[in-house]
Amino acid sequence: MGDHPCPDANAAVARYRAGLAGQHQSVRTSPAARRLHSAPQTASGRLPCPAKGQLELEVLESAALSDIGRVSEVIRACQKLGVRFALDDFGTGYASLAYLRRLPADVLKIDQTFVHDMLSDSDDRSIVEGVVSLARTFRRQVIAEGMETPEHGALLIAMGCDLAQGYCVARPMSAAALPGWIEQYSVPPLWNAAARGQFPSEDLSLFSAAIHHWGWCEQVEQACLKTDAGDTDSTLERDSTQCVFGKWFHGQGYQQYGQFD
């Protein structure tokens, strides 16, 4: 988004309103924080009343922190017009709790670099869990970016993050294709199972390891169905001590649950 985003955004909102009641349009702003300064006047003059409340502007965390006082004023002014704000790529900047408290953004979007490896990287998993907890504390909505597999989604649900975007949900598509996609979309069964469970924070590493193990079992099943030995998946881990679950079982898992032997 540059200085004149609203005509295109308005057109998109109008298209969505025609067949998708209750949906909103999210637009990424320019990384330059100065571009935000005219946002209230632009939104007020160009947003038709029906579109107010259905437009969300995304601003990079780094841009918001570069001029936090002015950006906070702009966000509040836009919110009075019914425009929501999201902090994009959250976690890649240097936002402290004090900064987050001052920024009245409605949504925190967890950067995909943390989401991508959270199944196998305990540090990334802790960061994602921390941002979800932070959002809950400050009563902000949280969205995970870069969710590429159903397993990622299951772990996010277990953490309490029930909104995400990524190739696992859908690849980029035109506005015209959206209604058809919504009609045919079905939620992966794994997500329903995760939603029914209650996972304390200390058990998330077990849940992550279990997800990897389920995936490994599926790989084994597929390998058994192949008649040609040369077609066997070369990525299939055969050492039970080196797979993700095995490393967890002989390491953190034993430390955490070894007393139950």
UniProtKB/TrEMBL annotation:
Region (Disordered): 27-47
Single Gene Ontology MF annotation: cyclic-guanylate-specific phosphodiesterase activity
Domain EAL, chain residue ranges per copy: 1-186
Protein name in UniProt: EAL domain-containing protein
Pfam families: EAL
Gene3D superfamilies with a match to the protein in the record: Aspartate receptor, ligand-binding domain, EAL domain
CDD domains linked to this entry: EAL
Organism per entry: Paludibacterium denitrificans
